[in-house]
Amino acid sequence: MLTFLAAALALFSTATVAAPPAEPALYVVEVGGKAGFIDAKGRVVIAPRFDAASRFSDGLARVLVDGRYGFIDAKGGYVIAPALEHVRDFHEGLAASRADRDIWAFFDKAGKLAFQGRWDRVGDFHDGRAWAELPGRRLAYLERTGKVAFHVPDAATGDPADFREGLVAVTLKDRSEVRFYAPDGSIALRVPGKLSRGFSEGLAPVMTDQGWYYVDRQGQPAFDRTFEFAWGFREGLALVKVDGRQGFIDKTGRLSVLPQPPIEVVDGSLSEGLATVKVDGKRGWMDRTGALVIPARWDDPFDSAQSFRGGLAMVGLRSESGVLTKGYVDKAGKVVWRPSR
């Protein structure tokens, strides 16, 4: 299986790849059952010709053609032509592909095999490290060469965390504390708690039996306050739950935005100044003041693209027969791409 994988990549890859400096502002659309891409003005820039497509990640988009995955650039040209059955998006220049039940391979943007190994599961690369689950649910973190950077023998089972802001949060089996590991495997911080979402904008939410609190990069409580639930910071604010109600706090712990019922935040963070909300089952967006600036009249598109990126967000529209179609709106609420299939 590994021999076939390497041969397929060699056959279908291009010789050189120049990754774009930033993610292209392109968005997946479907026309007549085929996927393509539009720009922020709603103009088709990559004709719908794929069976399926993912949003751009690390400068490339994964596309499906006749049951095989490949990757295209922002002009729609193949960087790696469809040859793989199981592959994930690129992160930090590498993409993971499952070659067999317990065999994983990582390849680069030239389609060349970077390394391979036997792991039950693997994560994507973040901050130069990717987690790997060894037989027996043992956890390790890999370097970009495939070499094990360090093992975490006493980690709790479950979905491992990715590195964020140079550290990774690991929950212990006995739930006695949360450890934050550095890329070399040294323990940078130990804090009381059962689990953590990791650092974002310099603070990390940590769960205890008494509730959630935030720690700083020194492992100290960021402010003297706990919450029923807490998400990570983004754009200077973090979503929390207090007395059964949602709200956004700033980095002093002050509750600065309190959405008024029946508004419910459905995405745990702001994106380009707006938060995705639900009102009576419909999706809309509120701003940093808590005002509903895009009316809640859309259905859930069941896609992470419902958060704004590059000025557009995905919306859904469900017909009376239950068929869901998807489109895009801009930050003024204007329909840029009408929901279609």
Describe the secondary-structure layout:
Elements: H1 2-12, E1 27-31, E2 34-38, E3 44-50, E4 52-53, E5 61-65, E6 68-72, E7 78-84, E8 95-100, E9 103-107, E10 113-118, E11 121-122, E12 130-134, E13 138-142, E14 148-152, E15 168-171, E16 177-181, E17 187-192, E18 195-196, E19 204-208, E20 211-215, E21 229-234, E22 237-242, E23 245-249, E24 255-257, E25 264-265, E26 275-279, E27 282-286, E28 292-298, E29 312-318, E30 324-330, E31 335-340
Antiparallel strand pairs: 1-2, 2-3, 4-5, 5-6, 6-7, 8-9, 9-10, 11-12, 12-13, 13-14, 15-16, 16-17, 18-19, 19-20, 21-22, 22-23, 23-24, 25-26, 26-27, 27-28, 29-30, 30-31
What do these coordinates show?
The strands form nine sheets. The protein has a four-stranded antiparallel β-sheet with strand order 4-5-6-7. Strands 11-12-13-14 form a four-stranded antiparallel β-sheet, with no helix packed on it. It has a four-stranded antiparallel β-sheet with strand order 21-22-23-24, with no helix packed on it. Residues 1-21 have low confidence and may be disordered. The chain has one helix and 31 strands. Helix content is 3%, strand content 46%. It has 341 residues and is mainly β. 36% of the residues are buried. It has one helix at residues 2-12; strands at residues 27-31, 34-38, 44-50, 52-53, 61-65, 68-72, 78-84, 95-100, 103-107, 113-118, 121-122, 130-134, 138-142, 148-152, 168-171, 177-181, 187-192, 195-196, 204-208, 211-215, 229-234, 237-242, 245-249, 255-257, 264-265, 275-279, 282-286, 292-298, 312-318, 324-330, 335-340. A hairpin with a 7-residue loop joins strand 18 (195-196) and strand 19.
